[in-house]
């Protein structure tokens, strides 16, 4: 590596890290992109893997393939364990040290149980392909067991699914589970019928989709109810134990509980002893640099960046992408100064045929919003093949109500325990 | 269940069990199809999942969906643990007993290590989706680790892949690994190049594809060599330990060892204390009935049925399908008498563009054979959607040399150990 070409290390190949690496590809820098996974994951569609509509490979692309033609980008499968900022070195789990001239931290977020870590085992979250396959397995197994269960109470429990958290992820997940349990598979079973299934969406605050205007939030609520989802607002979860969720004044037993109530940043702030908010996001400078670290940028879910309203920008793909590009442009000397987020609207979908979009000045809901949502998601999928496959899978699901990826995998003898 | 409608229990939803259930669907019988998996697996293409060309859901279909419209077919996710033939009952792991009037055993086969069970951990076989994902993970991880390995000996070991067994499965697997390691991913890596990789196919007998005529076998050998596969015949494996395979006069260390050397029947013969061959297959009557059990049929890999040459029919899908139909027809009173297998040819493929077909009177090899092989496999895939997706995936792989399902999943911190 000639000393005249600066070495940029990017940690994390999510939307932010990928956008930065793409911006730096082919430029007069050497780039090393480190991720502990070999694939970039299109997380906005992960809930569709969890609900058997798509296959993992449809929404994941090998990071190496994305940069096959970028000779100055090296991809490294490894896990970062710390940073020695004084010597400008990244510490790795498997390989030797990695020296950098510039460092971009795009390490993303993981579920947060806000101090109730014991809840994780009962109510898994949805961040990785393994998470999605585990949830898919649990939901499908519950229906299989319900088919042969003769005790009505136990059958009801098997067919009860609870989603905790009424943000976009929770809303999408609840809608998709309701479609799966109440529509797609109903003709396949002999004993259970659609109206046996209960899907409950639990939200601590006064409305679902709290980041959307109340009008759209009400539309989303109505659409979910039409799909058969029961909605509980102002119902903070008090306890999750023994397959039961206690929320508001209720306590409900369920076969599957999905956690969509919150995330926290990866431990990047701790690596640098940097100041962070309560979710672990580093309070970066307005140009995305970590304070006192001129050569380190933090982006995406790793950073707390205030928007025009003073509140932190949300943890969504467009924010991370634009930040990755902004960090890369500063390294290339193309621009300097504060990052400003350009919003193209806020989207959430509710099952087949319905979505809500907040353009800011204008709002959209219903079938047209769903079409826009679909095209936007297919368009941004990495790789032409994924676009075609996902597009066709959706068309197929739409026309037939079938779910094509209904596989229970993991162990040869599947058992689940309910109360 | 009215007593006038006989109850047929089918154990196993592989090719044989599925064919029997389809033949009985809509007829004046009640059918219960038991499988410990929720999906039928198109095993002939499983090696393509192991080598990252297809996704699991592309070659698997939920058993329930297949029989959604057959009101007289009930699907049960459970594992059979034994049979009480005197009381005509099947014993299950999870549910209660299942009484039958007719029983069809189509329980299939599993790997056999011929008494060397310790080899299984070192050299996994390929029978389930989990097997395929584990092999995929191992092969892809080996290449990732080779990319950063600086010691040349260790790098060579990481890039050495051994397939044990020169039957159709071993030949297809070796060809597919060679394409993956030497073609598809070569531009994605910076340090490793195609000629670093070694793929060795080890066969104990004098020729690969022993069930094919020597001329086709030689053609297959030549095609494999052109793909870069090293072939060792007359090289029975003496030992597999510590990541090394000892065969013939050699001992070679490898990162991935795949077992394709043999299978044995599931324990159905033991359930009935029936006479069986050394692979565990029941010696059935010529009408496929288990001796002394007028109401029990054994088919597919569970049964030893002599062909016209006196040797047992091979464990391939067409044999199992025709036997399933024959058993069902006898239950329906449509026919009686001995089963005769009608062969439509014997196929094996060797990577992209090459295959061999033995029609008996005529032989075919090369690109045309590969086209026929492709169409045959797509045609017999369960479900229209799978056909479309697999067809498109193949076209895409063919045109671009890409492998679209290159995901390493399982644990967040992947490590593999080599000697």
Give a topology summary.
The structure is a homodimer of 419-residue chains.
Chain A: E1 7-11, H1 15-24, E2 30-35, E3 39-41, H2 46-50, E4 60-62, H3 63-66, E5 73-77, E6 80-84, E7 89-92, E8 98-99, E9 102-105, E10 109-111, H4 119-122, H5 129-148, H6 152-158, E11 160-164, H7 168-184, E12 198-202, H8 214-226, E13 229-232, E14 237-241, E15 244-247, E16 250-253, E17 256-259, E18 263-265, H9 268-272, E19 282-283, E20 289-290, E21 293-298, E22 303-304, H10 317-331, E23 346-349, E24 355-358, E25 363-366, H11 367-380, H12 384-400
Parallel strand pairs in A: 1-2, 1-9, 2-5, 9-21, 11-12, 11-17, 12-13, 19-22
Antiparallel strand pairs in A: 3-4, 6-7, 7-8, 10-18, 14-15, 15-16, 20-21, 23-24, 24-25
Helix pairs in contact in A: 1-10, 5-6
What this model shows, in words?
Two copies of one chain form a homodimer. Helix content of chain A is 31%, strand content 23%. Chain A has 419 residues and is an alpha/beta fold. In chain A, the strands form eight sheets. In chain A, strands 5-2-1-9-21-20 form a six-stranded mixed sheet, covered by helices on one side. In chain A, strands 13-12-11-17 form a four-stranded parallel sheet. Chain A has a three-stranded antiparallel sheet with strand order 6-7-8. Among the domains of chain A are: 7-36 and 78-111 and 263-331, 3-Layer(bba) Sandwich (FAD/NAD(P)-binding domain), CATH 3.50.50; 119-261, FAD/NAD(P)-binding domain, CATH 3.50.50. In chain A, helix 1 runs parallel beside helix 10 and helix 5 (129-148) packs antiparallel against helix 6 (152-158). Chain A is globular and about 70 Å long. The first copy, chain A, is built from twelve helices and 25 strands. Chains A and B meet through strand 5, helix 5 and helix 12 of A and strand 5, helix 5 and helix 12 of B.
